[in-house]
Amino acid sequence: MLIAFFINDLEREYPGYTTTVLAHQAIMRGHRVCYMTPHDFVLQPDDSLCGHARFPAQKKYKDREEFFAELKSPKCKLEPVDISEVDVLMLRNDPSIDSETPWAMEVGILFGREAAKRGVIVLNDPDSLGRAINKLYFQSFPSEARAETLITKNESDIKAFAKAHKNNIILKPLQGSGGSGVFKLDDSAKSNLNQMIEAIGRDGYIIAQAYVPAAKKGDIRLFLMNGVPLQIDGKYAALRRVASKDDIRSNIHAGGTAEAVEIGKTELKVAELIRPKLVADGMFLVGIDIVGDKILEVNVFSPGNLGSCSRLAGVDFSVPILEAMERKVEIAKDYSQAFDNRHLAVL
User: What keywords tag this UniProt record (predicted)?
Assistant: First the structure.
């Protein structure tokens, strides 16, 4: 099958990224792979959907680094592709990092919808991704699974919320990812609250979230596939992300470190609480961040750290993901037009 990976741009991709892990696994399984960016779609006058894509050579690579080097090399040039010939389009971009080019933020969603109309399996479902383009989507999950949250641009609202929680809250932007613009308020930093509000508020709405004490131990990144925790023989695709001593952010590229973690009843209960919503929305591959018995984030666009989860668990979690994608293609062929993309995404 042909799998197209939609990303922000190649310059911001790396060999260890989850997208590379999945693309490398796909090509090692004999599938054709291509990469597309927001610049690459073409809707023709005859209403056919085409594009310009980068096709790495279809061969056995000695490792992921060699595959990535091929992808980045001058040999891997743009080639035309008819989107109707793509079996799976995987939307792996992060809209928040395209804030300086706002036209690019929803390109994957817009053309993903067009691709789905033409019979392409689009993961995750683009209609639902359109509703999840900022962190407000998080509020649609059961309150039992969420830390108490306020979303506002009003300074007095935030100060009242901080007072109610004894100045023990987290502040972050409604739009954003990777720990950008995240502040921890406590008694020692309360004099800086005005500056925090100003710094975050200039770019939009502010999320104020009750601090969960268990966050001192870091958060747990857990992958869900087809709505359920991804596992191989009882080993879960998960890790604990621990912040550095001088930073509250546990994101790996923000200085956090990855550690092996055991997934128990608490984490599985949280995952089950949010499963119905993810399934209803056609969210195939999701990364959730858990602290204690609460979820802090639900990453439905480009959840990362799959390679680290595999390394720590001693298994390759990209294998069941590709197997699931292969199965979806089989179902689509066996049940021609019987399922819409949102349902097919989680079958």
Answer: ATP-binding, Glutathione biosynthesis, Ligase, Magnesium, Manganese, Metal-binding, Nucleotide-binding
Residue 85's domain comprises 2-123
Q: Does residue 250 have a pLDDT over 70? A: no
Domain total in the chain: 3
Quick one: average pLDDT of 236-259? 70
Q: Please give the C-alpha separations between residue 257 and each of 240, 244, 245, 302, in angstroms, as whole numbers.
A: 8, 7, 11, 19
Which segments of the chain does DSSP mark as H helices, in order?
18-28, 64-72, 107-117, 126-131, 155-164, 193-201, 265-280, 306-313, 318-334, 341-344
In angstroms, rounded to a whole number, what is the distance separating the alpha carbons of residues 333 and 322? 17
Q: What is the pLDDT of residues 86-137, one digit of tens each?
A: 999 999 999 988 878 999 999 999 999 999 999 999 999 999 999 998 778 8
φ, ψ of residue 72 to 5 degrees: the values are -90, -10
Q: What is the CA radius of gyration of the chain?
A: 20
The CATH code of the domain that includes 264 is 3.30.470.20
CA distance 116 to 165: 45
Residues 220 and 202 in one domain: no
109 domain residue, yes or no: yes
